[in-house]
Amino acid sequence: MSSPAKAGGKKVIVYGASGYTGRLVCEYLREFGVPFIAAGRDKARIAEALGTVPGIDTVEHEIVEVAHEAEPLRELFDGAAVVCNMVGPFAQHGAEVVQACLAAGAHYVDTTGEQDWLITAEEQFGQQMASAGLLLAPGIAQMYTTGEIAAQLCLEEPGLDTLDILVFWKGMPTIASTRTILVNAALARAFYLEQNQYAEWPADAGLYSVTVPGQHETGLALPWGGTSHPAWFKRDPRVANVKVLGGVFNRALMLGVPQIVAAALAQIEGLPDADKLKVLSEQASAVMNQMPPREYTRINTSLDSVHASGPLGRAHCVIHGNCNYKQTGLLQAYAAYSLLQQPPRRAGFASGCQAFGHRELLGVLRSFGLVMEPALTRSR
Question: What are the backbone angles phi and psi of residue 125, rounded to the nearest 5°?
Fold first, then answer.
């Protein structure tokens, strides 16, 4: 493969642009009028993907093919301000991209839902990125940034130190999301935060019955790999305890998740790690092997609910939204747009809200019609 071109005048790089989420990031960069480089391992696939983006010809962009190795990536990132990484599972593929960002002096954001990657990224690269004045923000995505916005709104009231978070959405995961979910469920531990220390969710707890705001029917949820929130709030002096459950509104699909994971675990038992990943990828393809359709505003809804509590206070915030993958694309594009103009609020490891402000991110989502005005109640 030939050496990739440098970023040059295009300060934003969308790495993994051929996937479902990558093309949405490109779509919203166009909305902000931001030129970009769409990069990945297959130039033809990227070109095909971008060909489906409405109005893509009205924004300056370039397509670059690059090997997934630290040095070719560093060469590509040279001159870029920010890299939006869509290449997962991130626990497998994220380190090379962060290393290249460090070497090139570029901010790093991604869309991960993998708690183990957040913890690893902070431990391995957080201080280095902070010392360089660079942002390391894994997980800027509807799952779980919109829920973090709700949590931050609750925490505007002092004296609340415990977060009980529920994340629900209606739709089907993409091919990449399905692979990530299965790999994460099979190979990673899931943690919640208890008195500012990680505590492990029981591996055999099964499905949890939860009360979904706005519904008479109870929902089914899982720790979903632990989620990003415990890692984000571990360095927040206001917060000591965080538990998160997530799921989809489709009850039948949720009932099938434990069986799918159990079957995958049985398939990989006793295999070397490299073979485990291969088998899990094959299992994921059997579950979802085609790109889901573009989201429907009336069908693909999302719900983020946060109960915050303290010794003498309570708050509850619910954010109803639609099109969670579009929310992700918009949040990524806005992160890049913001970083082109000013430094993040926090360098090094940070969440979307910690880096850009929760009310700012809420305003962006509302301005594009992707979330309602939050319903927020307090009692003391």
Answer: -125, -10
Residue 120 sits in the same domain as residue 49: yes
Domain with 270, as residue range(s), is 142-324+373-379
Task: Give the pLDDT confidence score for residue 279 in this predicted structure.
Answer: 73
- CB-CB contact of 335 with 84 (8 Å): yes
CB 113 within 8 A of CB 227: yes
Number of neighbours of residue 95 by Cβ within 10 angstroms: 16
- Residue written as token pair 């109803």: 320
- Number of Cα atoms under 13 Å in the Cβ half of residue 365: 35
**Helix (H, G, I), strand (E, B), or coil: what is residue 166?**
strand
How many Cβ atoms from other residues are within 10 Å of residue 86's Cβ? 28
% the chain with pLDDT above 70: 93
The reply to whether 7 falls in a domain is: no
DSSP string, 278-327: HHHHHHHHHH--SPPPPP-TTTSEEEEEEEEEETTEEEEEEEEEE-HHHH
Q: Which residue has the higher pLDDT, 279 or 51?
A: 51
Q: At 5, is the secondary structure helix, strand, or coil?
A: coil
What pLDDT score was predicted for residue 259?
80
Q: Residue 184 sits in a domain of what CATH number?
A: 3.30.360.10
Q: What is the share, in percent, of the chain residues with pLDDT greater than 90?
A: 77
pTM: 0.93
pLDDT higher for 295 or 181?
295
Q: How many CB atoms lie within 10 A of CB 217?
A: 8
**Same domain for 73 and 52:** yes
Q: Where are the beta strands (DSSP E) in the chain?
A: 12-15, 36-40, 61-65, 82-85, 107-110, 135-137, 162-169, 191-194, 197-200, 208-210, 219-221, 241-248, 301-310, 313-322, 348-349, 375-379
Q: Is the pLDDT of residue 91 over 60?
A: yes
Residues 193 and 52 in one domain: no
Establish if 3 belongs to a structural domain: no
